[in-house]
Amino acid sequence: MPSFQHLLVGTDFSEPAHNAAARAARLSLLLQANLTLLHVIDSVALRALEEVFGSGADTGKRLQDNAHAGLRAMATELASGHLPDCHVRIGTLIDEIVAEMTSMDMLVLGARGDSPFRDAILGTTAERLLRKSLKPVLVVKRPPQADYRSVLVPMDFSLHAMAALQAALALAPQASIFLLHAFDVPFEGPLHRAGVPQHEIEGYRMRARTEATTRLAGMSRDIGGRHVHVLVEHGSPTLQILSKAEEIRPDLIAMGKHGQSLMEELFIGSVTRHVLADAECDVLVTHGLA
């Protein structure tokens, strides 16, 4: 099971970023982890300001001092013991966060925020962070009211999905776990067009459902000591995940970062992207197991 001992929050002082910091603070208390708050001042925007006001105006120092004050105030508000570390960096947002992540175990972000976090979760900033980060990324969409009590884990039996499950178990030790496998019969459309009888296709579906149910039941027994629910559905993984999330109302969806093609793998996977965009709860995205 992964160890989350160093949590990083990227903040722009927006309300969504504050929600992310509040969730990270709850997790740091639960996991006895260290918490770091990071604010990045965009170097390109800073140079533009210095051109307007002149380099003698000491614009950079003023922005840094203001950011440090904001982070200290946030740290004091969030602290329930050890104060979070506060870092202000000047540079490119993506590069500074990725560099900071080398010594961290998880990145926590708000789903939307002010510049440059104002991009929707499918925007270039968040997408590039998810693509570049080798560590789990938790995207927070709601103000935290309690620790995570229910987690939906889409399960395709890949290393990516197994990593997501292990991370979910670590971050939500008291939560009920919903294991969801969504399946399609390979080449079902061509099979229909080729005249394969419907009862044979239904047989394929039944065998796929039985196999997945058996594997999930085995995983459920292996987890042990948890309320684990096994869900097997026929249809599009994206639609089934979002449908079950609407039905179950989990606090968190934990999923692996991979796609069905090389092009999707270079980004964050089409299923992952849609769930990040459309799910109402927090979403944890992980890589495969080491």
Which structural class matches the secondary elements? alpha/beta
CATH architecture of the largest domain: 3-Layer(aba) Sandwich
Q: Helical content, roughly?
A: 40-55%
CATH superfamily of the largest domain: HUPs
Please render the helix and strand layout as text:
Elements: E1 6-10, H1 15-31, E2 34-42, H2 43-53, H3 59-78, E3 85-91, H4 93-101, E4 106-110, H5 124-132, E5 137-140, E6 150-154, H6 159-171, E7 176-183, H7 188-193, H8 198-223, E8 228-234, H9 237-248, E9 252-256, H10 262-266, H11 270-278, E10 282-286
Parallel strand pairs: 1-2, 1-4, 2-3, 4-5, 6-7, 6-9, 7-8, 9-10
Antiparallel strand pairs: 5-10
Helix pairs in contact: 4-5, 9-11
